[in-house]
Amino acid sequence: MKLLAATNRYYVLLSAGLFAVGSVVLYLGTDYAVRNEVGEQLHNHRLEVEARVASGRPLPEPLYRGQYSISPRPRPLGFSDTVLLDPTEGSLVPHRQLTFRVAGPGQPPAWVTLRKSMVEVDELLMAVVSSMLLVLVLLLGSIVGLHRYLSGRLWASFRRTLAALRAYDLQQHRVLALPDSRIEEFAELNQALTHLSSRLVADYENLREFTANAAHETQTPLAIMQAQLEQLLQLPALAGDAAAAPLLADLYGATRRLSRLHQALGLLSRIENGQFTQAQPLDLAGLVREKAAQLAPLLEARGLALHLDLAAGPPRQLHPGLADSLLHNLLHNAIRHNVPGGDVTVRLTAGELAVSNPGPVVSGDPSRFFERFRKHNAASESPGLGLSIVQHICAYYGLGLRYDFAPAGARHTLRVSFRPAGASPAASPRVAPAAAVAG
User: Fold this and answer.
1) Helices 184-233 & 244-272, crossing angle to 10 degrees?
2) Collapsed DSSP state (helix, strand, coil) of residue 85
3) Cα 241 to Cα 311: distance, rounded to the nearest angstrom
């Protein structure tokens, strides 16, 4: 429920409750006041009658039969309510009456009953109730109208702020631009969010610069270490040292893994920073054939068969380096997680690129296999960044990514779906993949 709607609900309930209590109090107060006024009028008439009788004059004849009556027999004294038939209207009319005893000089006692119609009182009370109901309807209608006005006008700046927050992307390296607001609370909120976004941008820029500098500064030492270890392993004197050769081989392997990790992290950093802007039309079918030829020795060494089903399609606007990395990681993932005597099948159509392979059933949540350093086999020498790189490349170009598993044959398939052929890569949103994969 929206904040304004929840607030107005309490306002409506409070207003309706107070209005109902006020209406009852007004009704009872009006009824009491009118009855008290009628009682005073009857009491004054009583004094007039008693004074007339005390002076020895006879009781006056009533103009109307219902005004008062005289009885020689005793009646209950005091005020009471009764109904009398109105001969003109033909209906029963409520009356307020006062009965008292009078006795003149030398006259027998008589019991006089004075009456006054209460029709005007009932009509007044009905008018009061009707007026209160009308005011209640107008009040509730005004509250609803005020709610719509506030929701559409006063909260418009908050909605614009919320829309700006949803569309904000830190990777665009810009401070959040929020509209001005005449509402003091919303203006303070916009100022706080703007200040927060400026700090985030500054921290992100510092982190990006640190990553770039660290990658640049460590690249040369890693290359030197790897080259010197290669020279050490080729020394003739090392061949006769059974203790040093395995240690140097392990050190060389660790250096190569560190170099691959450095390259993968550097590639992810450049993708996130949007440094691959020079896209050009590429023939994916030709690139797949080239990459398959490069990986042929690895496929042969592992006893895997390669099946290519490449249909002619429109060129794709991609950066050559990212396209090569995309295909390399997809094929390496299929080779690494294959079974002895298995195969790798690559199918390219106008709508998608699918790479499938048989393999063991993947345990756990497939959505987590795209996380960095996530490996299905903890003992693997892979840094666990291949699928993360695939995900970032697909997100960078607005490509869909989906993982399918067919229980029949235990076959895993990674599908990269392309946008329409006429779309511009610059206009493509940088979105997350359509589904998670495992690899």
Assistant:
1) 150
2) strand
3) 55
